[in-house]
Structure formats: C-alpha cells, structure tokens
Amino acid sequence: MPAAAPDPRHALVLFSGGQDSTACLAWALDRYERVETVGFDYGQRHRIELDCRTVVRDALAAQFPHWAARLGDDHLLDLRLLGQLSDTALTSERAIAIAANGLPNTFVPGRNLLFFNFAAALAWRRGASVLVGGMCETDYSGYPDCRDNTLKALQVALSLGLDAPMVVETPLMWLSKAQTWALTDRLGGAALNALIIEHTHTCYLGERGTLHAWGHGCGQCPACALRRNGFEAWQPAGATP
Which residues does the record give as Zn(2+) binding sites (predicted)? Predict the structure, then answer.
C-alpha cells in the first residue's frame, strides 16, 4: 500500500533538545506536512539542552531525508524573565528536593503555560494550527502544568483568544517512558533511538560526560532515573506500544 498522505496542517513542536521533545518532533514529522520547532531560553541553570537542539535537528534531517523535506524553521525565544521570577533547582544552583507543597523543587511555576502561550502567538504568525508538546502524566514528576486537563483547558483558551483553531497535541501524555522508547523505535527504528541516546539531553544537572546505554547524564537525578528505568523496562521486550 502507498504511504498515507501527510496531514496538511502546519505544526509547531515545543522542542527543548531532550528525549521527550525529540520523540514528539519525530512523531510530528511522521504525521504533518510542515513542522517547525520552538525552544525557550528561560535562564536554565545550564544551556546544554539548548545546545543539543541544533545538533538533534541536523541529525534528524541527515539521517531521515523523508522527514527533512517537512522540517521547517527553528525559533528560540528569550523568556529569561521566567527564570528571574522562579526560585527553583532548574534555574539556580541548589540540590534537588521535595518542597513543602509536595512538588519537587524542579517545578518552574507557569512554565508550560507561558511556553504554550508564546508558542501559540508564534504559530498564529507562522500559519500553524497544531502545537505539539512532550508533556506526560504517566511517568513524570507531578508538575500540574503537565496534566491532560490543564492542557485541554489551555487549548480552549488559546483558540478563543486567537479566534482561530489551535490544537494542542501531547502524544506522550499516557505513555510510560518505556512506551516512549518503543514509540521512537516504531517511528525511526534503531537509528532514531541511537540518535536520542547520543545527542539528546535530559539530565537536570547538565552532566554530559558519561554515555550510558540510555544516554548522557548523572544517572541519579529524577530525569535520569525516569529515562534509565524506561530504557531498561523497554529494552528486554523490544515491543512497540
């Protein structure tokens, strides 16, 4: 059977350079006719993930030429005001811990809400009507702005506020990390997962020295633990979701 025609809509992927956003970028490239990316500099304690963004995009285009034709412009927005408002383990040098409110102190209040608002404004200008983000409430750190209901409500608000349909897609929302590895295996096979292992970055501490079987990272922070455990859970089965 011939390959299905791509969805003609224009998508904008919230792309950080990490595993989840790379999975979402591959998912969007497999589905939509035109895909652009947007990243955010919000005063992170390290810039390694931002530095990975260009490397990952270039590697995807080089290794998957059928996606390269669909991959459009990249945008990096300056949201350092968010870092100035936040006092978290992602925006300052402090140990990762659980705060008094029960959330990890890696939670940056309002981050995803602001990201989607700025992404929607950019999408409107660029003629895109689909926003794609890697938020998940299966294997995640409990952030309230990652929850499905939050993003469904935000989709309604964005569409009303722009007086134009703005769809928020979260393809990882109900997947475990093991299923995320399986998803990228289905989309791009061993080559895509090798690219994710080598070039993406998730570690909260910015550790890039050691390359583990699941990728670079300190191996101890919550982000590394989720990534490692998901990889180990997926690896023996090798099954797709």
Answer: 203, 218, 221, 224
Burial 173-197 (b: 16+ CB within 10 A, else e): bebbbbbbbbbbbebbeeebbebbb
Q: How far apart are CA 223 and CA 77, in angstroms?
A: 24
In the annotated binding site for Zn(2+), the residues are 203, 218, 221, 224
Judging by beta carbons within 10 Å of its beta carbon (0-12, 13-18, 19+), is residue 2 exposed, middle or buried? exposed
pLDDT in tens, 162-204: 999 999 999 999 999 999 999 999 999 999 999 999 999 988 8
Question: Binding-site residues, please?
Answer: 15-25, 203, 218, 221, 224
* Predicted model pTM: 0.87
Contact 190, 155 (CB under 8 A): no
- Cα end-to-end span (Å), the chain: 22
Q: Which residues are annotated as a binding site for ATP?
A: 15-25
Average of per-residue pLDDT values in the chain? 86
All domains in the chain, ordered by first residue: 7-202 (3.40.50.620)
